From TrEMBL:
It holds the Pfam family NUP. This is Purine nucleoside permease. SUPFAM superfamilies: Purine and uridine phosphorylases. One of its GO terms (biological process) is nucleoside metabolic process. Gene3D superfamilies: Nucleoside phosphorylase domain. Keywords: Signal.
Length: 330
């Protein structure tokens, strides 16, 4: 009898241990790139509004190799700040994906952050769904005066065809756009005034939800010349028009492609600056503005990102039976 009791106790202990250590089944993972200070209570960066919406009472877990802890709520929504740039963000993402505390086998990933936008394509406080993710680097460049006059100064490097461009699942992008295209976005008087410095109609309009290519570079490429080059690269790779300049998306996509695949990835970026100055200022002056000359709209943009992205996160969680096995992949 004593032996049987001991066996039962051992079985119960093992079962309890297994239950406590069962990996968290992640439905949606939200990836921010930076936070200005704390996750709540101060000036928000890319993650604070996500934290306030989903993670106030969430479990916090440290992950070796990740920049910051991962937060997970009871509904299967998790998130973390990965770090800025391709190396920092992708190394954090890899560490989190490979960590045994989580089950990402059926997860959706929301790459979320800010970026720059060409004034010919959009305006400050726009929120853009990425249809393609492109690496601005992985090529050869030279000074314009060292090539043919007026010709492009970029040539793709051979051998990187599979990692320099990723198309986001079109069905998932179309769903995200349909769920959010009528979202009421925030704006500000300072952003409205700043827009008027630009002559382009797209730059002067009110913010809205758009879709297009996100191009990531570790260098902060800027100015009309490099903006045109980014568009050239998009066309060269057969992608949609270049809409957002950022620093991480394609690197995170590469990590996911090696581990889980990219069919469940979304990229959402808010435009906090134009990628070039207005016709009356130099590129350097635009990069290093005088006091009072900085673009407005940052606070409204990071709020808009979550207003838009939160609709999709909530939709996936609410209709999990339709998404568990992969949207439009069944």
């Amino acid at each position: 009898m004593k032996f049987l009791i001991c066996v039962l106790c051992c079985v119960m202990s093992v079962s309890a241990f297994g239950a406590q250590n069962k990996p968290i089944e992640v439905k949606v993972f939200i990836a921010g790139m930076f936070e200005i200070g704390a996750n709540q209570g101060d000036k928000p960066g890319e993650f604070q509004h996500w934290f306030e919406r989903y993670f106030i009472d969430a479990q916090s877990m440290d992950v070796a190799g990740a920049l910051t802890p991962v937060f997970c709520n009871k509904n299967g929504v998790c998130g973390s700040v990965l770090g800025m740039g391709k190396v920092a963000s992708s190394s954090s993402m890899q560490a989190i994906i490979l960590n045994s505390q989580f089950d990402f086998s059926q997860s959706y990933f929301m790459i979320s952050g800010v970026g720059g936008i060409p004034p010919s394509q959009g305006t400050i406080a726009d929120v853009n769904w990425g249809s393609w993710l492109i690496d601005y680097d992985l090529g050869h460049r030279w000074m314009p005066d060292e090539g043919e006059p007026g010709a492009a100064v970029f040539m793709p490097r051979q051998g990187y065809e599979d990692i320099r461009v990723y198309q986001i699942n079109p069905a998932l992008v179309n769903l995200a756009v349909s769920l959010t295209k009528d979202a009421s976005l925030k704006d500000s008087a300072s952003a409205q005034a700043y827009r008027m410095r630009y002559p382009e109609p797209q730059a002067r309009r009110k913010p809205r939800v758009t879709v297009g290519t996100h191009i990531a570079g570790d260098t902060f490429f800027h100015g009309p010349g490099l903006s045109a080059e980014a568009q050239y690269i998009s066309e060269l790779y057969g992608a949609d028009d270049y809409m957002i300049a950022e620093m991480e998306g394609v690197a995170i996509a590469q990590v996911l492609s090696r581990t889980l695949g990219t069919d469940r990835v979304l990229s959402l970026r808010g435009a906090v600056n134009f990628d070039q100055g207005n016709p009356h200022e130099t590129t350097l002056a635009h990069l290093d503005p005088a006091p009072g000359e900085t673009a407005g709209g940052f606070a409204e943009t990071v709020d808009n990102i979550v207003i838009v992205g939160g609709r999709v996160v909530d939709h996936i969680v609410t209709h999990w039976a339709d998404f568990r096995d992969g949207y439009a992949l069944k």
